[in-house]
Design brief:
By secondary structure, this protein is an all-alpha fold. 53% of the residues lie in helices and 0% in strands. It is built from three helices and no strands.
Length: 87
């Protein structure tokens, strides 16, 4: 059995970013304004919409875990983010 480490790392990132969005939608309004890098500068995509785009980009590169990723996508749509457009 081979382990796809890249997919595992991407899945971890998706879960982490999804957790941030979950906390934000549960009332943690400052969730993204507190995300700063060195020198006190904000991360360029540290916003709810930036996280949604990042989650979707990463999810497209993950092997397996289809049910979990479908559940995450359904929650993103339930929160009001536009559904992902598939070509």
């Amino acid at each position: 059995m081979t382990t796809n480490y890249a997919s595992n790392i991407r899945l971890w990132l998706v879960r982490t970013k999804f957790n941030d969005l979950t906390q934000y939608h549960a009332g943690d309004e400052g969730r993204f304004t507190r995300m700063v890098g060195s020198g006190g500068k904000s991360f360029p995509n540290s916003s709810p919409w930036g996280w949604v785009q990042s989650i979707r980009s990463l999810a497209a590169q993950i092997d397996g875990h289809d049910a979990e990723l479908a559940t995450i996508e359904a929650q993103l749509v339930a929160w009001g983010y536009p559904a992902e457009v598939t070509p």
